[in-house]
Design goal:
Number of helices: 13
CATH class of the largest domain: Alpha Beta
Number of strands: 16
CATH architecture of the largest domain: 3-Layer(aba) Sandwich
CATH topology of the largest domain: Rossmann fold
Shape: globular
CATH superfamily of the largest domain: NAD(P)-binding Rossmann-like Domain
Length: 388
């Protein structure tokens, strides 16, 4: 049984910790006392129904704590799943927290195996390996969906390992042995693995942007979006994935990863990467202008999270629509149970769903929900297929 340490109890860190704790001794570190207490009481601080039942029903070797160097003794591997938010001033991921943790580990025990799960700029892992020579650093990207993080961890589409030859076999067995399926394992350099992560998310953003622009065209010429998309996607070369229109791509990953990839292209000719980012902005402009043209007196925003089953409201596309609408002086109210205050950036938060529906002359939502079926005649959404 391996001793595994995980830094970061967000959805990436926690999903990996839960998956590995079936066959390994796992300790997960965080700076949030509430998260630590929840995990130690077999509860989870993220929205993930499978993880909720798994942590209760499975006999896991999992504990949570604040980091202490004493945990490093006999550690077989350390997984870093720490935030790397995009910094608009530097046009790059903010890797400060990652670098601080790596520095602490470098000065502790020689030859620790470090597996970075955080999304980083291309070249970051190689740079860190040169800087922290006491560590053995690998980069293994995640391809998880929020709300389904544990399911995707247990059933990965592929495993990508960016490392030197000495680490590949250990890391491959560590993750493959915990999977329920038998995913293909791709061995790569750290630069290649970092590129795989960014290009994967950028392609997903491209799909979202394409079908959103198709939908904008259909709205403009009063065509049936669903008919067009179904016929286009029936071609096996196109396929049906990521084809449900929305207000724009959002969430924690796609907006920042597309911007980071664009920055990595600073010495390479490109057109598509910039166009994806521009298209998302244009889509929000188009949707906002269409909503404004309906001349609603009071717009109700139903949920700020980017999709159903997610507790993440960061960079959600509906917030971009809100800002544009509010700039025209239209009253906007919000229904979002995750927000405990009565105000969200100057908009009233209505905690009573019945009053919210009554006061709203038009309700906008990125994804349709059962809560709104009784008022569907005043709901505006581009959710054509009822899928996330």
């Amino acid at each position: 049984m391996n001793k595994i340490l995980v830094f970061g109890a967000g959805y990436v860190g926690l999903a990996n910790a839960i998956m590995l704790a079936k066959d390994n001794d796992v300790t997960i570190f965080d700076i949030d006392q509430n998260k630590i207490d929840l995990i130690n009481n077999a509860k989870i601080p993220i929205e993930d129904s499978m993880a909720e039942s798994f942590i209760l029903e499975q006999n896991l070797n999992l504990s949570a704590d604040f980091f202490n160097k004493s945990y490093l003794k006999d550690a077989d591997a350390i997984i870093l799943a720490l935030p790397t938010n995009y910094d608009e001033t530097t046009n790059s991921f903010n890797t400060k927290i990652l670098e601080e943790v790596l520095s602490k580990l470098n000065s502790s025990i020689d030859n620790l195996i470090i597996i970075i799960k955080s999304t980083v700029p291309v070249g970051f892992t190689c740079k860190m390996q040169d800087k922290f020579k006491n560590l053995n650093i690998a980069f293994c990207p995640e391809f998880l969906r929020e709300g389904n993080a544990l399911h995707d961890c247990l059933n990965p589409s592929r495993i990508v390992i960016g490392s030197n030859e000495n680490l590949k076999e250990f890391i491959s067995k560590l993750f493959s042995n915990s999977c329920l399926n038998k995913p293909e394992v791709f061995h790569a350099t750290t630069d290649e693995a970092e590129s795989i992560k960014l290009f994967s998310n950028c392609y997903l953003a491209l799909r979202v942007a394409f079908f959103n622009e198709l939908d904008s065209y259909a709205i403009n010429f009063d065509l049936d979006t669903k008919t067009i998309i179904n016929a286009v996607c029936a071609d096996v070369r196109v396929g049906y994935g990521y084809n449900n229109p929305s207000f724009g791509y959002g969430g924690y990953c796609l907006p920042k990863d597309t911007k980071q990839l664009l920055q990595n292209y600073n010495a390479v000719p490109q057109n598509i990467i910039q166009a994806i980012i521009d298209s998302n902005r244009t889509r929000k402009d188009f949707i906002a202008e269409h909503i404004i043209s309906l001349k609603p007196k009071c717009i109700g925003v139903y949920r700020l999270a980017m999709k159903e089953g997610s507790d993440n409201i960061r960079e959600s596309s509906v917030q971009g629509i809100m800002k544009r609408i509010k700039s025209k002086g239209i009253e906007v109210i919000v229904f979002e149970p995750m927000i405990k205050s009565d105000n969200f950036f100057g908009s009233e938060v209505c905690s009573n769903i019945a009053k919210f529906k009554q006061r709203s002359s038009l309700i906008i939502t990125n994804r349709m929900h059962q809560d709104l079926i009784d008022v569907k005649d005043k709901v505006f959404t581009r959710d054509i297929f009822g899928e996330n």
